[in-house]
Amino acid sequence: MNHFDSPHRADRAFAELVAKAEADPSVLGLFLHGSRAFEGMATARSDYDVAVITDDSEQGRRWQGEKSKELDWGPIVLAAYRSRVLDGSRWPDGAERWPDTERYIFAHTRVLIDRLDGQLTEIVREAATFPARSRDRLPTMLDVY
């Protein structure tokens, strides 16, 4: 196999994941992020980075992620996703819930499925903004750029 086969396999694998998510009512949201979501950044070797947001049903908890050359995706239950992205700034062990430096990812996230009448899209939009507590750290965080 040469490396030119991979983009077609990646496209097929991504299309299969989207179709599976669309057919499963336990999937509440599907987000594309990474280079495939950033206009002009994907290359022939880019994988698809996807988040699958599920409900807390038995069916939703059956989703298992994958990390391959074609797909890098994982499931997360809606309540856990909401908590990780929006609620507070720290986990009980002191680690940041969602590091402010990674909010840039959300600015380019494409919401492919939102079965909550725009609520998931709003979560992504809010996660892309810097909360007031972080604004004073912006110059330091962006210094490397």
What is the element layout, followed by pairings?
Elements: H1 5-23, E1 27-33, E2 48-54, H2 58-61, E3 66-67, E4 71-77, H3 78-86, H4 103-107, E5 110-114, H5 119-127, H6 132-135, H7 138-141
Parallel strand pairs: 2-4
Antiparallel strand pairs: 1-2, 1-5, 3-4
Task: Explain what you see.
With 145 residues, the chain is of the alpha+beta class. Helices cover 37% and strands 19% of the residues. A hairpin with a 3-residue loop joins strand 3 and strand 4. It is globular, with a radius of gyration of 16 Å.
Portion of residues in helices?
A: 25-40%
How would the global form be characterised?
globular
Q: Ranges with pLDDT <50 over ≥5 residues?
A: none
Mean pLDDT: 82
Termini gap: 37 Å
Percent of residues in β-strands: 15-25%
Structural class: alpha+beta
Beta-strand segment tally: 5
Seen as an oligomer or otherwise, the chain set is single chain
**Radius of gyration, whole Å:** 16 Å
Order of helices and strands: HEEHEEHHEHHH
Number of helices: 7
Quick overview of this protein structure:
This protein has 145 residues and is of the alpha+beta class. Helix content is 37%, strand content 19%.
List keywords for this structure.
single chain, about 140 residues, alpha+beta, five-stranded mixed β-sheet, 5 strands, about 20% strand, globular
